[in-house]
């Protein structure tokens, strides 16, 4: 199997999933969008993983590749109907690609915080209804189209996880390793969020 990974900063990568994919002999092609690497033809990929990043979905003037990325996510998810996993920014980009919206939160979520599963017949099958997950975001998904399902929520963020056919968006981080938080704390945008 071939997976395409889209990254927005080199330290925000698939983390623990890299180990799992290696064990399953999955070929990974990584595109570093913030370094102007181009998204390849999507036909050869069986799944796409889109990571988080310090930018926001609306910053297309500063990061013009965001528009191209959303177009490719739309093609992959809505036309090719292939499996997709978006984490944090990757979830927000999925939302906009399929017709949802993203807005600034009243209260940002930063830290290891509570998440509640709303739909156990999903990727959360067999998990506890309530769990803690790493959060690091000040924007949230909203106004999803009617054909999506909300899978998990938190007190500050109604849409912590959602699905649209074979695509899944998670606002929280399940990919982290022991190096994740120390590395991210060095990113100016993330450091600023921690201090506010």
Mean pLDDT: 91
Given the helix and strand composition, which structural class is it? alpha/beta
Rg calc:
16 Å
Name the poorly predicted regions. Answer: none
Tell me the major beta sheet: 9 strands, mixed
Shape descriptor: globular
What order do the helices and strands follow? Answer: EHEEHEHEEEEEHH
Number of strands: 9
What's the structural blueprint in terms of helices and strands?
Layout: E1 2-7, H1 16-23, E2 27-32, E3 47-50, H2 65-79, E4 84-87, H3 89-97, E5 101-117, E6 130-142, E7 149-153, E8 161-164, E9 167-170, H4 180-184, H5 188-195
Parallel strand pairs: 1-2, 1-3, 3-4, 4-9
Antiparallel strand pairs: 5-6, 5-7, 7-8, 8-9
Helix pairs in contact: 2-3
Structural features, described:
The longest helix is centred in the middle third of the chain and has 15 residues, at 65-79. This protein is 23% helix and 32% strand. The chain has helices spanning 16-23, 65-79, 89-97, 180-184, 188-195, and strands at 2-7, 27-32, 47-50, 84-87, 101-117, 130-142, 149-153, 161-164, 167-170. The model has no long low-confidence stretch (mean pLDDT 91). Helix 2 crosses helix 3 (89-97). Strand 1 (2-7), helix 1 and strand 2 (27-32) form a beta-alpha-beta unit. With 196 residues, it is an alpha/beta fold. The chain contains five helices and nine strands; from the N terminus they run E-H-E-E-H-E-H-E-E-E-E-E-H-H. Strands 2-1-3-4-9-8-7-5-6 form a nine-stranded mixed beta sheet.
């Amino acid at each position: 199997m071939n997976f395409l990974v889209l990254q927005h900063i080199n330290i925000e990568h698939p983390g623990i999933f890299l180990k799992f994919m290696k064990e399953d002999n999955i070929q990974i092609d990584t595109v570093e969008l913030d370094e102007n690497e181009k998204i390849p033809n999507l036909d050869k990929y069986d799944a796409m993983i889109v990571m988080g990043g310090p930018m926001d979905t609306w910053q297309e003037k500063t990061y013009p590749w965001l528009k191209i990325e959303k177009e490719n996510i739309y093609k992959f998810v809505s036309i090719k109907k292939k499996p997709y996993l978006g984490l944090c920014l990757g979830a927000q980009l999925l939302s906009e690609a399929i017709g949802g919206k993203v807005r600034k939160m009243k209260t940002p979520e930063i830290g290891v915080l509570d998440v509640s599963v709303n739909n156990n017949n999903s990727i959360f099958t067999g998990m506890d209804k309530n769990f803690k997950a790493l959060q690091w975001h000040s924007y949230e998904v909203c106004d999803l189209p009617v054909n999506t399902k909300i899978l998990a929520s938190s007190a500050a963020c109604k849409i912590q996880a959602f699905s649209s056919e074979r695509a899944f968006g998670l606002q929280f981080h399940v990919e982290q390793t022991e190096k994740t938080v120390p590395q991210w704390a060095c990113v100016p945008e993330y450091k600023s969020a921690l201090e506010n």
